[in-house]
Amino acid sequence: MPTERGLDDTEFALWADFTVPDDFDAAVGALEEITGVMANPLLTYDSLGYQVETGGVAVELSEAAAEALLDAVHGKFLEKGFYLFRHERHFGIGGVPDLVALLPTSDRYRVLSIVGTNGANYEIDTEEIIDWLRALEREQSFVLTGIGYDFFEGRFSGELQDPRELAQHFYEFCPDIVTQGTGTVRDLAAELRETLMLYCWWD
User: Fold this and answer.
1) Rounded distance between C-alpha atoms, residue 82 and residue 25, angstroms
2) How far is CA 37 from the centre of its chain?
3) 147, 111 contact by CB (below 8 A)
4) C-alpha count within 13 angstroms, C-beta hemisphere, residue 165
5) Sites in the chain below the pLDDT cut of 70
6) Is the pTM of this model over 0.85?
7) CA 125 – CA 175 distance, rounded (Å)
8) DSSP track, 115-130
């Protein structure tokens, strides 16, 4: 039975023959069933700061459970035309759960547009982020599993062609990953090479 709060780390389990229904409402039901969490409407903000519904839903999960869920079924939902992604990440601080969302689209750039991902404090808008990622995609394939108001995250597919050049590219576009993260572009390059993680945020 779905509940109002996210499940504990130890409660997450996915049966081997799990399949995602073709219908979005049924897919939402499947998400509630595998997480044990009641889905609520996914809200975002318009240009005037008012909350608006997106047509999607979201569930609250612990950081570990959100990670496990995305690892297990992001691709399964995507195959049926639905985008499952982490919308809010709180790193377990203060026990605040993460928010995992589901939208009725398979287009990650559409998700970025709906969410309104931006780096406003660096004067970077949503369209610039989408253009930057489209250019990156032409050089290096990747999967996006996290899309929020001021961040995106995912993983590169396969070995990186030039980690140092890529790290410099990231630093120029989202400098916080160095100034508040690795400390140097060189260390970012080493991290990218080792983890293949794709991450940008703007504080």
Assistant:
1) 11
2) 19
3) yes
4) 6
5) 1-16
6) yes
7) 15
8) HT--BGGGTB-HHHHH
